[in-house]
Amino acid sequence: MKLKQKKPTRTGSLKLRRRKGKTAVRPVPGAIPLRGRNSMRPWTIKHAPQPATSLHEHIMQADLRPGPCPACGEDHPRATRLHEMGHVVWTPLNWADRAQAKGLEEMVTQVCEDARLNRRHIEAGERVGQLMCAEQIKQLLMVEALTSDIKTMGMAAVASLFTGDEQTVREGLQELVATGMLPAETRRKVESIMGTAGSYLDKPTPTFETETLNLAQWLTRELAEAQAEHEATLARMGEEAEAAREGDDEESEEGEYLVEKDGDKITEVRDGEGLWGVMTMEYPRLKHPNNLLARRTVQRDEGVLPMRPDRVLTDGRMFTRKVHRAKLAVLVDCSGSMGWTPETLHDFLKALPATTVGYYSGSYDSGGPGVLRVVADRGRRCDDEYACQPHGHGNDVDGPALAWLGAQKADMKLWVSDGGVTGAGSTADLRRETKRLMKAGRIQMVPDKETAMAVAQGKRAFEPGRGFHER
Amino acid sequence: MKPLKGAELWKAITTVSPYARRILLYGPPGTGKSYLARVAGVQDSEKVYPVAVHSDLAAVELRGHFIQTKDGFRWVDGPATTAWRNGGRLVLDEIDRAGDDALSFLLGVLDDHETAKLVLGTTGEILTPHPDFTVWATMNGEPDDLPEALADRFPVTMELKAPNPEAFKSLPEDLRRIAQVMAEVPYGDAGHVPLRCFLEFARLREHVEHELAAQVCFGLQAEEILTAVRLAKEVDKR
């Protein structure tokens, strides 16, 4: 008898289907009995980075990837699925119609409803975690700040209430103010909206009919007010900047501080025009090793390359793994009475031997030439006779020196300076350029050697409004 | 006529089961085919002979064989021959896995009652099927996967895509709905969780932590299932 051969693809396709089932997580909105609806109607679950739920169509889209976000380690997919399930449980089917009947914008109502659901989740025993990467949130806030879209910023802030994103939003607003991208008044307004909305919803069992709709009405007014106030603030700041620019012509040529200092706190940044001097690089011979004590490799009992097979007989740690040691680059402003003595450099390199150190100073001749000298690099330092002021007593080449620091491949870049910058002509533009270079190169300004060491060793940190403080 | 599905299909199976002689049940795993084949319409006096078919199953294991005794050798009927001779239900699980040897024998056993004859080659005895002899077979694939001659011997074929809705009543109330929803997700797709996982979870959670029980029973879906169960309780508070 000739037997019919089985289809060869059968097993393969079955395996594929099984694999698919094992690599995706599916929320179960169908498990929620819905009032007045065809409750056993199946749901369509789709994978999409932007979560959404259609209660009418029985469609839920969410991130179905299992496990945490590979970028930041937070479990965003899980948080978004949990939030979307909240819509199935608590959002009424006709929410959009009810919002429309009250003349409310759908988007504003939706963010209020999002916040209410997040609050209900807490009541039900589970807090919605971070819905997005912190960096992504801060980037969105920055875009909103740059486009002066305070309405969207306010809505995003309200939607983050009672989630893991709430704190990130507050931090993002703070950073925007610190970098001068958002007026402090606007930040206060947005935070006030967050605070009021949070307090309003923070009660047992908030409902759509009362809390969401009332909050949406209030939020509509507040967002319009915040937008208007922000625009007024920007206009006022523009006028002030214009007045300051006119005043710059009358300023002395001695140079000004990048920041007005109140202890270590950064309080204000001003604006103007100017030109840097020409900088020359000097590379003295780096003769002296800095006694790198830290090991570059460690032995492990797991790994890929068995570099030490002899250790099988002792501790079994036959695999070698490289240790990543944080690299540090330091630029020292040697103008005026600033600068380090050779002993200061020794102390610093003793604590942090793998540091690249550059000294710079200018001719004190308003835009004259300057020199940047690399006195330590790759675990070695120069003779003490070169560890001194490289050119003159002036600044003049702060910009090119900062550009050099910004180009260093280091995990942390510190500029040891009092923040004073000079160049040819007006210094206001130099200050703006300095600020840009610091931001682009991710450079942190520190006032002295002690602070630089503490920051590099993670003992102290800078925080806008608080200055350098102990961790 | 609409194709039978859901509760209607299960009702149809239980209605015809006392009378149908050869039934093939097919569908994804975890839908209760084997259980149904063993119990549906079985009378108190009726005997059931379950056989797990596999590629190395020999015809002698179904037909019977000689065993050595003090007096010499004695013939012992296999499950198929016993059911054929005395009446009873032969249940062939995973019939699509049958190898050539077993398949040739089964083609003879599964012939129509009116024409079927089974010759026990060693004894020369010729048997005709007992009027109460029935065969229920189950498989996971499609009937097309079977050799044509074998598929042709099952006049009644039924596809079971989801477990019997009545089976969910054996679960605690908070798990019934979600178990039904997840069992109905096509097998192999993300989110398909068979009923037996929920039955095991219900048993385990009486002895260990909920989370642990869910983790071992549902794997990746554990958190989603626990969330849905918890949120379903919130519905009453709306």
Characterization of this structure:
Helix content of chain A is about 40%, strand content about 15%. By secondary structure, chain A is of the alpha/beta class. Chain A folds into 2 domains: about 15-225, no CATH class; about 280-295 and about 325-455, Rossmann fold. In chain A, helix 4 packs across helix 9. Chain A is flat, with a radius of gyration of 30 Å. Residues about 1-20 and about 250-275 of chain A have low confidence and may be disordered. With about 240 residues, chain B is α/β, with parallel strands linked by helices. In chain B, strand 6 and strand 7 form a beta hairpin. Chain B starts with 6 loop residues before the first helix and ends with a helix. Classes of the chains: A alpha/beta (about 475), B alpha/beta (about 240). The interface of A and B includes residues 1, 34 and 81 of A.
Radius of gyration of chain B: 22 Å
Separate helix tally of chain B: 10
Q: How are helices and strands ordered from N to C of chain B?
A: HEHEHEEHEHEEEHEHHHH
Mean pLDDT of chain A: 80
How many alpha or pi helices of chain A? 13
What value does the average pLDDT of chain B take? 87
β-strand amount of chain B: 15-25%
Low-confidence runs of chain A: 1-21, 251-273
End-to-end CA span of chain A: 83 Å
Main sheet of chain B, how many strands, which sense, barrel?
Answer: 5 strands, parallel
Radius of gyration of chain A: 30 Å
Domain count of chain A: 2
Low-confidence stretches of chain B are: none
Percent of residues in helices of chain A: 40-55%
Query: CA-to-CA gap between the ends of chain B?
Result: 42 Å
Beta-strand percentage range of chain A = 15-25%
Which pair of chains forms the biggest interface, and how many residues does each contribute? A-B, 43 and 41 residues
Class from secondary-structure proportions of chain A: alpha/beta
Strand order across the largest sheet of chain B: 2-5-8-1-9
